[in-house]
Design brief:
about 500 residues; mainly alpha; about 65% helix; about 0% strand; transmembrane helix; GABA permease; membrane
Length: about 500
Amino acid sequence: MSSTPEPAPPGEPQTSGLKQGLKQRHMNLIALGGVIGAGLFVGSGVVIQSAGPAAVVSFLIAGVITILIMRMLAEMTVARPALGSFYIYAREALGKRAGFAVGWMYWYFFVIVVAVEAVAGGRILQLWLPDIPLWILSLGLLLILTATNMASARSYGEFEYWFSSIKVVAIVVFLFLGALYLFGIWPGSDGGVGNLVSHGGFAPMGTGAVLAAVVPCVGFYTGAEIVTIAAAESAEPKKAIAKAMRSIIFRVVLFYVGSVFVVVAVKSWDSPETGVSPYAAVLDVLGIPAVATIMNGIVLTAVLSCLNSALYTSSRMLFALTSNGDAPQAFTRLSRSGVPRRAIVAGTLVGYASVVAAYTSPDLIFQFLVNSYGAVALFVYLAIALAQVRLRKRIERENPGGLEMRMWLFPWLSYATIALMGTVILAMAFLPASRSQFWLSALTLALILICYQVRKRRGERPSVPPAGPAEDPTGGNREHRDEAPASATEPPRPS
């Protein structure tokens, strides 16, 4: 049975009944593991094939952009923790329309991630279970992790902690083995980094290809911001976010840039194996037995981690959207364990439908869904940067003692970050490889803005008419209810 939450202390987020079950160790791994997905282990091969060894530079540039965006977000979140994080900041800094768009774009992004990762996980399992149809395996993964998220925030945190731990350990071991090989310590190794220049030079495709590769690389880093969403369910949100954000910066760049450097230094960039599975190609050079099985296991872990986080993040963003009437009030209802189960179900229903689409229409409907969310997260990142510039002076007034985390070299570095994000987004519109993703993502944004206008003209607070009071089959006996309404839905006020 849910209870009435105590008012949040000044400077702390109003959680609207969400249980604070996430600990610092959960927050650290959520931040770190959120950016280590299947894109690194598999998708990086496409970037390497398009840019050559200079893909290291592409990942470095994308990493710097991500670090700057996360620093801007951390400044706002540590100074003013809020349920919904950047959705609230965008709403306050850029207006109600922008906040509505940011919140729903982010929700849409992660419900499509739910579908994509469920299908990807099913395909990996099918390598070991070839007789079971893909849709059954994908559906099974979706059901298992939905049940995990339904239990409690702590349950999500524990699963994510171990999933992320496996990914981090895998990358650390990979970097260690690669270093041994490059220094000539590994058995049979001559050492050296000759592969960086011996196959057409360091940038065989030219500088333009290196800059173009930054676009997909930025997408690979998406997920670091999840920790600011999870902050509402941590015991000490300000401390948790500050520590997690400080720890993530150099680790992420080290993991991405370092591991990609090992790949192109150990294995020639133009090798077919590098394009298909770059990390497996390196392990094969090192003579590691059962390479395919090891990498499939690691990639499956990354997929399950992303699926787990996508279910969590989409539900919390939908829950936060209700705080300002931007989503139906029915989604404010919580289970006894403080979990917004209806919001979780809403995200999984889209996932179920997408899994069916992947089975019945993989080349039409499912491909459309995949392309329609490709640039959405970048739109959100741009909104975060714009919001930070608009809110900086206001946040400073609210914190006369000084900000615990500050954006470096404000405002010039903030302006530079906005320019960089704008450049990446514009590049998507013109590069052949990403053009369809940009325009379909722009269509997604346009539809969301149309929904806002329709809601505004109708003069209704929620985006669709709110559900009426649910009929209580227990006759009002609260002891037997599975869900009870959250008691507070207002966003936090400045302290």
